[in-house]
Design brief:
Blueprint (H helix, E strand, L loop, with lengths): L13 H22 L45 E7 L11 E8 L6 E6 L3 E9 L7 E7 L1 E7 L2 E6 L8 E8 L5 E6 L12 E7 L10 E8 L1
Antiparallel strand pairs: 1-2, 2-3, 4-5, 4-11, 6-7, 7-10, 8-9, 8-11, 9-10
């Protein structure tokens, strides 16, 4: 199905213009239905089914690219923000290929991006509690792509279900003791211990007196890599 760009054709009769006119109507409806509900559901008609965004790695070959190099800085001064996606590689997303969104925020009147936002992506997350002595039973309240074990007092190992792309990730976390005092979460590096690994992350929960102490509650998230 093609679009009849010359319509109505002034050289044709009204009757002859009916066929290309009907073709254009069908073309519009077909294309609208690719990403909208269109004349098919009175509750959803006009609503988006999905939103497509340009992929920065392919934009240079896109006929609607911003410039010959696909440079996202060449934007209209009236645009406040432009959102893109980037396909993750098999190394970055080993089990399921994903699109990673990022945005250029425009504030400079010349169109220069003054802020570049990229979603780091949560590789793993966990929220767990630790019971009192003598069992120190770990109860996982929520987890994604990881599990945790206690190796000694205030020493824990987070094991990833699916290995991370590299050991260059960023951990964020909080911990709290039964007494209500907060603990610091620190990577457990030492002469015989490596904290950062593609398959695990070793950490300690440390008190304000610089002693390793068992927590009551821990929340931990791993980003990037």
């Amino acid at each position: 199905m093609t679009w009849n760009s010359l319509w109505p054709d002034g050289t044709l009769s009204v009757k002859a213009n009916e066929t290309p006119g009907a073709q254009n109507t069908a073309y519009i409806e077909t294309k609208q239905k690719l990403d909208h509900y269109w004349n098919e559901d009175s509750n959803n008609d006009g609503h988006h089914k999905k939103v497509e965004m340009p992929n920065i790695s392919e934009i240079a070959s896109d006929p609607f690219s911003l410039d010959a190099n696909g440079d996202p800085t060449v934007l209209s001064a009236g645009m406040d923000c432009m959102i893109y996606t980037r396909s993750k590689t098999a190394t970055e997303a080993p089990t399921t290929q994903q699109d990673e969104p990022f945005a250029y925020v425009i504030e400079d009147p010349s169109g220069t991006p003054v802020n570049h936002y990229m979603q780091l992506g949560f590789r793993a997350m966990i929220h767990f509690t630790v019971g009192a002595s003598p069992g120190f039973t770990i109860t996982t309240l929520y987890s994604h792509n990881c599990s945790v074990t206690r190796e000694a007092e205030g020493q824990y190992k987070l094991t990833f279900t699916v290995n991370l792309p590299s050991a260059n990730y960023i951990p964020f976390g909080t911990a709290q003791r039964l007494s209500g005092n907060y603990l610091f979460i620190a990577p457990r590096e030492g002469a015989n211990t490596v904290a950062f690994n593609k398959s695990f992350f070793k950490f300690s929960t440390i008190s304000s007196s610089n002693s390793q102490r068992d927590p009551n509650t821990v929340t931990l998230a791993i980003c990037g890599g």
